[in-house]
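Before we proceed, please read the two lines closing this message. Let me know whether the structure tokens fit the sequence:

…
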Amino acid sequence: MELLEELSPLLCGDEAVFENPVTRCGMLHLYTQEVAHAVSGKRLSIPTKELADNLRRKADWLGRFLRRQEWLDAGNGEGWFNGYYDDHGRRVEGIFPSGVRMMLTAQVFAVMGGVATDEQIASIVRSADRYLYREEIGGYRLNTDFHELKLDLGRMFGFAYGEKENGGVFSHMAVMYANALYRRGCAAQGWKALHALAKNALNFSRSRIYPGIPEYFRSDGRGMYHYLTGAASWYLLTMLTEVFGVHGQAGDLVLEPKLLPEQFDEAGTASVCLTFAGRELEVVYHNPQRLDYGRYKLAAASCNGEALEKRGNTALLSRARLSALPKGRNLITVTLSER
């Protein structure tokens, strides 16, 4: 792979450099000076595996650094990541004389990005449920009440608490929190976030909006700035790829459901229709025992009556078989049974 020659300072793989903030900032300064006005056009070649390994080492170091530097242990099994410093260089989140300061955004990206360990995720969930969750207004607030006009952290604290980015139930981040939890195998916790949003949006007497996803729900539960396309698309993405577990992998179709018992009908069936690789598909899951996620396995899977390949607890429909499917609706059936 060819890269701009000016990028070479950033390819340093020495962890001793990363650990020292002076050398780390010096490396960045050298790069910014090189590209401040122009680039030379000269290129350097680097094997893709070498570049991938370089980036992985940086990511692994950064994850360890964040777990060491920014994890806040609140005791009693609670804890969360600090995600912000104010303009005076002070840590924003934690336990202060004025109360608990916790922000949802830092937790979302720590969980989604693989920084948080499984134990830390459990602590984050307990903390978010205690300090941020309000079912009656749509679920998870963006932050706790700082009880301060904290303008050295930006415009969000110019709003009254419960409005917009200052403590509103911000749909986009709440949905991303759900998506992050599903990705890490926390289906029940992820569904709690999704269901609370939908339940409040559909309660017209409180939300006062047409059904859909608003930018945020304010402190009385009313939906504001309808309709937020980013939150809506993330909601659909999460339902399809995580809840129903239908997603692509290198061109193949993979089925890995994370459905909960209450998401199946009286007959123990849950289904979704979609288009994948230009083919119309209906995916039907059968869970006659109404088993919970974590208790079931994929016992059988087929497409138009022909068995699908199983890999562990997933089923796979190869790109070649997908391309050979007829036009019109194709039926995929999956039977779930006790592990």
About this structure: The mean pLDDT is 96. The chain is about 35% helix and 25% strand.
